[in-house]
C-alpha cells in the first residue's frame, strides 16, 4: 500500500462517491461526491478541481458539508485549501 501520495482522477466523480487520499486530490472533471484529502498531514494539503460541487470536503481533518462551502468556490475551477479553518481559493 502506498502512503503519503496524491490521488489523481481524470474523469467526473459522481454524487455518493468518495475519494480519500493521504496527500492532495486532483479531479480533472466535476467533483460531486465526497473528497477527503490530507489523511496524513504533511504540510499544506489541497484539493484541485476542474469544477467543484462536492457533497463534503475534508482537508487535514477539517470537514465542510456542501452548504458550508463558500459560494465563490462552488462551480469554480482552481485549488481549494484550508488554513486557520477557512477555505482559500486560487485559480490554477
TrEMBL record:
- Per the UniProt record, the source organism is Escherichia coli
Q: Which family does it belong to?
A: Belongs to the MinC family.
- Chain segments annotated as coiled-coil in the UniProt record: none
Q: What is this protein called?
A: Septum formation inhibitor
Instruction: Describe the task this protein carries out.
Output: Cell division inhibitor that blocks the formation of polar Z ring septums. Rapidly oscillates between the poles of the cell to destabilize FtsZ filaments that have formed before they mature into polar Z rings. Prevents FtsZ polymerization.
- Extract the SUPFAM superfamilies matched here: Cell-division inhibitor MinC, C-terminal domain (SSF63848)
In this chain the Septum formation inhibitor MinC C-terminal domain maps to 3-72
Q: Which NCBIfam families match?
A: minC
Output the superkingdom of the source species.
Bacteria
Report any one BP term from Gene Ontology.
regulation of cell septum assembly
Give the keywords, sorted: Cell cycle, Cell division, Septation
